[in-house]
TrEMBL record:
<dbReference type="GO" id="GO:0008903">
    <property type="term" value="F:hydroxypyruvate isomerase activity"/>
</dbReference>
<comment type="similarity">
    <text>Belongs to the hyi family.</text>
</comment>
<feature type="active site" description="Proton donor/acceptor">
    <location>
        <position position="157"/>
    </location>
</feature>
<keyword id="KW-0413">Isomerase</keyword>
<dbReference type="InterPro" id="IPR013022">
    <property type="entry name" value="Xyl_isomerase-like_TIM-brl"/>
</dbReference>
<dbReference type="Pfam" id="PF01261">
    <property type="entry name" value="AP_endonuc_2"/>
</dbReference>
<protein>
    <submittedName>
        <fullName>Hydroxypyruvate isomerase</fullName>
    </submittedName>
</protein>
<dbReference type="InterPro" id="IPR050417">
    <property type="entry name" value="Sugar_Epim/Isomerase"/>
</dbReference>
<dbReference type="InterPro" id="IPR026040">
    <property type="entry name" value="HyI-like"/>
</dbReference>
<feature type="domain" description="Xylose isomerase-like TIM barrel">
    <location>
        <begin position="28"/>
        <end position="265"/>
    </location>
</feature>
<feature type="active site" description="Proton donor/acceptor">
    <location>
        <position position="258"/>
    </location>
</feature>
<dbReference type="InterPro" id="IPR036237">
    <property type="entry name" value="Xyl_isomerase-like_sf"/>
</dbReference>
<keyword id="KW-0670">Pyruvate</keyword>
<dbReference type="GO" id="GO:0046487">
    <property type="term" value="P:glyoxylate metabolic process"/>
</dbReference>
Length: 275
């Protein structure tokens, strides 16, 4: 399948692609594959406050490769792994999230990244959902204010229930509800939906209908094909149609390639035409 997309704002997610390389080698590998934009989950799953030298080394690697970071996750616990965020997880994880907020926002500002993704966090057995939701709103508002201070938006992402059974945001509507609550709490209007078409499709929704309805609320889009979370063309989604729907909805932000390569990551971009 060959796809050209008016918005060539494709960026490579370096937390799922090029992972066969050390973190600091990935920006150059993405640049060698023709990309100038990249995105990352929080790169230190065990450390919400990494040493400045590690932050500087990543900043230097991004700069040396001529790549710009278009989106960065806040600390989200063990991701990849069992966790799906820390904003709604009481106790130490909430404290780690809050300790990370200014670190992540400051790093984003230092590399020109203007989108920060705060994964909501899994439900915790024995903790009332209302308690988690109240904590999440407090923490997400705190993160939105920090993002605003550096000229960034706060992204709220729905995942799919099949792969994240304890994660409470499993459709666009539930993520947008949180976006609206955060905006109401801060008055800043800098919260946006992270529209991940892979998770939408894995949730069984009509992806075309969700794009038509929610693309206008999106501050960032991520894609992978379904089934298999591979490159476009490896599954059943019609990306030419979905990209035209994003265009028609006026979405002109980044489109993150958040899929798994079948073999070397450098060979995972053949579906792109005319870049
Ligand atoms: O786990 C995922 O699929 C994500 O998008 C994390 O940001």
């Amino acid at each position: 399948m060959e796809v050209s997309f008016r918005n060539t704002e494709f960026d490579v997610n370096l937390s799922i692609l090029f992972t066969e390389l050390p973190l600091l080698a990935r920006p150059a590998a993405a640049a060698a594959a023709g990309f100038t934009k990249v995105e990352l989950w929080w790169p230190w799953p065990d450390d919400p406050e990494p040493p400045e030298a590690e932050l500087a080394a990543l900043r230097d690697a991004l700069d040396a490769a001529g790549t710009r970071l278009t989106a960065l996750n806040f600390y989200a616990g063990r991701l990849p792994g069992p966790d799906r965020g820390a904003a709604s997880v009481p106790g130490e994880e909430s404290a780690r999230f809050r300790a990370n907020v200014d670190v992540a926002a400051g790093f984003a500002a230092s590399v020109g990244c203007r989108a920060l993704n705060a994964l909501y966090g899994n439900r915790v057995d024995g903790v009332a959902p209302g308690v988690q939701d109240a904590l999440a709103l407090e923490n997400l508002a705190y993160a939105a204010r920090a993002a605003d201070r550096v000229g960034a938006i706060l992204l709220i992402e729905a995942l799919n229930a099949a792969e994240s059974p304890s994660y409470p945001l499993t459709d666009a509507a539930s993520a947008v509800e949180i976006v609206d609550k955060v905006d109401a709490a801060t008055g800043l209007g800098n919260a946006r939906l992270l529209l991940d078409l892979y998770h939408v499709a894995m949730g069984g929704a009509d992806v075309r209908e969700v794009v038509d309805r929610y693309a206008g609320r999106a501050g960032h889009v991520q894609i992978a094909d379904v089934p298999g979370r591979g490159a476009p063309g490896t599954g059943a989604l019609d990306f030419a149609d979905l990209f035209s729907r994003l265009d028609a909805a006026g979405y002109d932000g980044p489109v993150g390639l958040e899929y798994r390569a079948d073999g070397p990551s450098a060979n995972a971009f053949g579906w792109l035409a005319g870049r």
